[in-house]
Amino acid sequence: MDWDDLRIFLAVARNESLSGAGRRLGLDASTVGRRIARLEQAVGAVLFAKTPQGYILTTEGGRLVAPAEAAEKAAAAAFEATWRDEGISGQLRIGAPDGCANYLLPQIAHRMSERHPGLEIQIVALPRVVNLSKREADMAIAVSPPETGRLTVQRLSEYHLHLAAHDDYLRSHPPIARLADLRHHRMIGYIPDMIFDRELDYLSETGVEAAAITSNSVSVQMQAIRAGAGLGIVHDFAIPFAPGVRKVLPDEIALTRNFWLLRHADDRASRRMTLLADELGREIRQEIALLEAKPD
């Protein structure tokens, strides 16, 4: 049995589609399909059932997952046994909420790429929790620690958020001297039923009941604020990227949150992944401190 076929099998099992597995592996869907057919012929069993929801493991396919994952770990161990200290190479896929993905990770990825020319960094920005069990990413940044799952969880850094608006909006609307004044202003925030983590329910802490403009994306909210559409809660580390946006009522509305790094429990023995996790953690702490120190 070919390890490369098992690698493709795991990608289909985790993505539940040939095209999704192909994108993850850099192969076209037809090639993935042929390799799965070859593996099924080799083991003498149908491994996937094609349903309207995607490719679902059959009973026989489910039995192959554990041996395939064991082969995956063995292949990773073999790679590390021949790895040299002159640089970390290969692929690193990082899942993150879009605020972190847009305002922190691009410059961090730049610095890490400079240090490790052989490293390919992929940033997955999702308005939801990244599913590590399906290998959507090698590691993920979250705004709260998970309560279930076989994961290694590490607190990375706290960060801060404030109510903010663009100067153009503030000049053309009534002054804001206290919290009660907010009821006369247009608010920007999350779509309520798309808040995937309670830590993102920012507006509830301001006393505002509803927002006039909402999005499931932090970046879209920031662009609306930057366009002068209203006020919203923003990350302090994002303000330097939005000239003209400044904090409003900073003493009355000040939020603190944390970023957490999530890794597969099985990756704890991986020296490569541990080095990358440590480097990513240091970079995030430094970048937050740098950006939050800039005046708005």
Q: Give the strand tally.
A: 11
β-strand percent reads 15-25%
The description of the largest β-sheet is: 9 strands, mixed
Radius of gyration: 23 Å
Q: What's the SSE pattern?
A: HHHEEHEHHEEEHEEHEEEH
GO molecular function: DNA binding; DNA-binding transcription factor activity
Family: Belongs to the LysR transcriptional regulatory family.
Pfam families: HTH_1, LysR_substrate
Organism: Paracoccus onubensis
Question: What do these coordinates show?
Answer:
- The N and C termini lie far apart (59 Å).
- Helix 1 crosses helix 2.
- The chain has three domains: 79 residues, Orthogonal Bundle (Arc Repressor Mutant, subunit A); 79 residues, D-Maltodextrin-Binding Protein, domain 2 (3-Layer(aba) Sandwich), CATH 3.40.190.10; 100 residues, D-Maltodextrin-Binding Protein, domain 2.
- Strands 3, 4, 5, 6, 7, 8, 9, 10 and 11 form a nine-stranded mixed β-sheet that branches.
- The model has no long low-confidence stretch (mean pLDDT 86).
- Strand 1 and strand 2 form a beta hairpin.
- It is α/β, with parallel strands linked by helices and 296 residues long.
- The protein is built from nine helices and eleven strands.
- Belongs to the LysR transcriptional regulatory family.
- Keywords: DNA-binding, Transcription, Transcription regulation.
